[in-house]
Amino acid sequence: MCGDIPLSPRMRFAARFCRSSLFLLGDTNKLPATYIPLRSAARHGGDFLVFMFRLLGHVVPDYVHCNQFRMIEISPKPSESAANPARAAFSTEVVDAEPRFMELAGELDGLTMRCGHAAAFSRHCFLHANWRIIGKIPRTSLHVVVIRRDGRAVAVAPMVLRRDRTGFSRLEWLNSIVPVYSELLLDPDQPRGTLTKLIKRHFRSLPFVRRLTAERVLDGSSLAHLVSELGAKSTTPVPTFSFKLSACDGWEAFFAAMSSNSRYYYRRHLRELEKFGPVAFEVIDDRSRVERETRRLIDKKRIWVEERHGRTGWIFDPSTPDYLTRTAKSCATARAAWIVTLRCGNRTLAETLNYRLNGVDFPILISQDQQWNDYSPGWLLTMQVFRQAFDDGIDRVDLMRGTTPQKKRMSNETIGIRDYSVYLGLGRLL
What we know:
By secondary structure, this protein is α+β, with helices and mostly antiparallel strands. Among the domains are: 1-84, no CATH class; 241-415, Aminopeptidase, CATH 3.40.630.30. It is built from 15 helices and 17 strands. It has helices at residues 9-18, 46-55, 80-83, 85-88, 98-103, 105-113, 124-134, 192-204, 222-229, 251-257, 260-274, 287-309, 320-333, 377-391, 405-409; strands at residues 22-26, 34-37, 70-74, 90-95, 140-149, 152-163, 169-173, 185-186, 209-218, 233-234, 238-244, 279-284, 337-344, 347-357, 360-368, 396-401, 413-423. Strands 4, 5, 6, 7, 8, 9, 10, 11, 12, 13, 14, 15, 16 and 17 form a 14-stranded mixed sheet that branches. A hairpin with a 2-residue loop joins strand 5 and strand 6 (152-163).
């Protein structure tokens, strides 16, 4: 018995037969309460419960999840969690409503900062900017899995759930058209095996989710390990280039290690530019100016790309300006984003949007004035980003994906990035 709810002999027999707890499920405003014996309460999520209600003849809206039901456990024997205090410390929440997702900003950012390089773009402002775009797609809902230990978030899997007309769904990692990394957030101070086991258990609890996809996953990341354990198929890796600054003892050592030709042209380009006016590097970190300059930078980058490759690529996607301006403005508030410009007199020769996340600098968007290509202003600006990172004690500069020779020359570390796809539940049988 639980509270004033009596157990009939038939229900007691069902509880003993199923070797599990019984649950009283229902929302008093929408559904009549119904007793359903489950073999293991932890293995069944919202989709299974909705399916059971429909079998019993109840009308359930499409957009309904486990956290919209009142659940009262009626245990015929001590529960497994009571017998195992370590397991009882973990709890799982599925966030499917935007207001609740907004409430997670503080603890999500705190966990992201503990998760390292690959998790840099899993901060709340980036995920919310992604959701503003993806959430406009019909039959799409948030599906953010949050695992807590003693009330503290120790794992977050940010995803969306897309339903098709057949009644099946697929999970997609919450990412955008802008080529930034996807990651599963796992607290490094917690047992990794236990956290991934809880995530996989959640996947098993969704029998009508046929597939999980994740794009732009760094090799060696927590998400790469998870999907590999699930048996996912991956695309051919695309290289990303970065420079581990600890390999050099400061800017002078970094510059001295460059080839003699690179050192020569660096000095020569700066001297030649000084003939046209004073050369200066300017950092713009005021959030209102960052927003304006980011829009101008996107327009310039589009012109540059169109002249070389035509109107193709993520830079021309209609969602790109909103994504970059929102995230840049939000990060600028926390001094985690700014614009760096190379000026010669009253001319702007090159500029870049730079994020500083989790101890890493990401010059994510660089544009230069085509009339000054002979002086390599984009390269000079990237060198300034490196110099500033050395001065500020930053661990790494990530030039991200690409195959340009310049990125390869300016890196001492190459990491592959892949897209993954894995079938789940009934999807393995179809």
